[in-house]
Structure formats: C-alpha cells, structure tokens
Amino acid sequence: MARYRPIILEGLLMQEGRQLILQITDGGQWRLVALGRQEHLLGRQVRVEGVREDHDIVAVDKITAR
Asked: Which of 3, 7, 34, 37 stands the most exposed, by the fewest C-beta atoms within 10 Å?
C-alpha cells in the first residue's frame, strides 16, 4: 500500500477518548491526527483534507463543516 498520499474524506466527526474519529457513510472509520481544537465540530458532518499515513490514519491539514 502506498503511504503518505493526499486524501479527502467526508463524514461525521466523533471522539473516542482523546482520539478523533471520522465515521464515513459506508460504515468505515478513520482515525485522525489533528493539531488544534475541533470540539466545535464534534457530532457534525465535516470534510477532512490531509495525508493518509497508514491503513486507517489521516494526518489532517484542514477540517471544515459541511
């Protein structure tokens, strides 16, 4: 699998413990590594732009509400 590829995802932003999780409509989940605070976006539909670092991990560049 190619690593460190740009990726854009859309889904529901959730939190499990201290980990941000993006739940996408097909049932998949992505773990997000993001700097800063995103509490105001929890429970909302968002668009995530970043870099895929591993099987289910995205290093986030930008999160915007949909």
From this structure: 37
Q: How far apart are CA 6 and CA 22, in angstroms?
A: 16
User: Region 4-17: what's the mean pLDDT?
Assistant: 94
- d(Cα 8, Cα 48) in Å, to the nearest integer? 6
Residue 5 CA, distance from chain mean position: 14
User: pLDDT per residue over 25-56, tens digit each?
Assistant: 899 999 999 999 999 999 999 999 999 998 89
| CB neighbour list of residue 29: distance below 8 Å, 6 or more residues apart | 21, 22, 23, 56
Compute, in degrees rounded to 10, the torsion defined by CA atoms 6, 8, 13, 18.
Answer: 0
